[in-house]
Each structure stands twice: as structure tokens, then as C-alpha cells.
Design a protein that fits this description.
Blueprint (H helix, E strand, L loop, with lengths): L6 H8 L3 H8 L9 H14 L5 H8 L4 E6 L9 H13 L3 E6 L4 H13 L4 E11 L11 E7 L6 E5 L1 H14 L5 E6 L4 H16 L9 E4 L3 H12 L7 E4 L2 H13 L9 E6 L12 E4 L2 H17 L7 E4 L2 E3 L13
Parallel strand pairs: 1-2, 1-3, 3-4, 4-5, 5-11, 6-7, 6-8, 8-9, 9-10
Antiparallel strand pairs: 10-12
Length: 342
Amino acid sequence: MPSRVRISDVASAAGVSIATVSAALNDVESARISAGTQQRVREAAASLGYVPNRLAQGLRAQRSRTIGFIGDEVATTPYAVEMVLGALEAARAADQVLLLMNTQGDPELEARELATLLQHQVDGVLYATMYHRSVEVPAGLGATPVVLVDAESSDPAVSSVVPDEVAGAMTAVGELLEHGHRRIGFINNSEPVLATSGRLEGYQAALEQAEIGLDPTLIVAAPPTVEGGYVAARQLLELPAPPTGLFCFRDLMAMGAYQAATEASLRIPQDLSIVGFDNMEFTAGLHPGLTTVALPHYEMGSWGVQQLLALMESPTERAKQVQLSGQLIRRRSVAPPPVDVT
């Protein structure tokens, strides 16, 4: 095996001192190195394949230039992988390494993984969850800078970034309103999570903004599954005055609504318009393609890293709690309501 190229090898090849090589490669302005010398050093380093020892650099600066990312099921959930990608690219842009841990929601595994991150002397930790919920920052992190991603804390001293559930629901309902729908059903989640109340609030706010009275019979809660969406949609479509548009809590429930519409001999979107939430991969494959609201996973991961870097740089940096809006993804499941509907 070839031996590792050392900084002294670069110095010999460039005909300069080790200190000059270090200053040239690290762009130390106070060293006053000429452009020609700096270029010669860089060419020598490139030709030899020299790679700076990040560990040694970190020890000198008392920084590992490593960020820990720990999540419950984020790394194994297809649509949330964007969150990891956002964090990874933001870390790379800041010359940081992202160390990823996945706990599968196991408290014991989480404790071990957190200990591993601290053993690697990470400079900060992104603590992420698969869905928007309230959490407590693990006590084991001590004074390590932390940012919650897709999660929030009751502690105002903890930085966090979550989706704006209210705004997302208003965007979804707004798409139906813009197409002329006035009787809009909402298939909500029956589980008591933050997104359930947030999206209900957004649905109500959108109707109020459009000066449409709230009809409780148009709101049905069900388990957030295909079957749950199917059962809820059937209940709504069997009303004496059924809705012409449906807003579904998540895309899986919208898939169930598609099935219910087919059974009722309703065409999408000619007879019934449907908007989902999540922008899961399969939605584009539905026929017709499902219009939906994409959760800002990539943006949350990126913002989390940027806020963590600010906390790492300045211990006096104030904590921030941010909500990011999702993007409407228009496909072909929304059209004006049937002309004979009053």
C-alpha cells in the first residue's frame, strides 16, 4: 500500500516550508503569500494527491467540523429522505460532514446512537422526527447545540423548524376554491397529532376567508390510511348534498378517496376534484395525477443546518422557531365543479 502523502512532501515538492504550505492551503491572509507561491503549493498538493488531515485541523481549532443527524425513521421513510438531502447539501456547502443515525423510534437505540455522536465530538446535532410532533430534547446532549427538525419543543430556548400546517391546508383548499368549488369536504386524520389540528384550522380559515359557512357534516376524521380515506370519502359522497371537492389529510387517504369515487361512478376531476397532502412518490402515478401539497422536507433539513451553524459559531445566538410553507404540486385531479351543481 502506498504511504499517505504528508504536508512535508508537499513542502518539498513546492520548495517551501511546511508553514507556507499550511497557510497557502488554508488561505491565511495574514501570511502574505504571493499568488505565484500559493499556486505552486496548490499544484504540488494536487499532483501528489495530498488530502489535509481534518482530524488534526479539528483538534487545533477545537472543532470536529462534523454535524450529527439523528432521526426516528427519517432515513428509511422515502418522502422524508429529502430532509436528509437538504441537511447534507447545506452541510457540504459549509465544509461540514454529516453523520447520520437512525433509531427506528427505539429509546434504547437512540441513547446509544446519541452517545456515539458525542464520542465522535460532533459540533452540533439535528434531532429529526418522521412527522410533526412535540418532543423533549434528550438530556444526554447536555450543552451540545441542537436544532429540532420536523419537531418542536415547549422550551423557547430550543431552535426548531416545522411545516406550516395551517398555511399548507389553506393552500390546498384555496386550489379548490380558485376552481369554483363551494362545497368542499375535508377528510382529516383521527389521530391527535399536531398536523391534525393545524390542517383543520387551515381548512376552516380558507372557507372563512372565502365567506363560506362551515358545515360540520363535510368534515370526517379517519385513520390516515388508504382504507381510512376510502371509508371517509364514501360517507361524504353519500350525503344528500355531497361535496364537489375533497381535501385529504394525506395522499394515502386521497388514494382511498379515488377508490370511493370510482365505486360511485364519479370521474376525477370532471365530477369530483381531490387535493392531497404530502406529495408521496406514488401520487404522480395515480390516474389522473393527484394535485397535492408537498411538505418542505428539503427546506427544513437545509434550514436546520444553517441554524445549527449559527448556534455553533456564537453561543449567544438566539433560538429560533420557524414554520416553513409547503409547495402546491398541480397535476390533474382538480377542475371546476359540474355545471349542474348549485
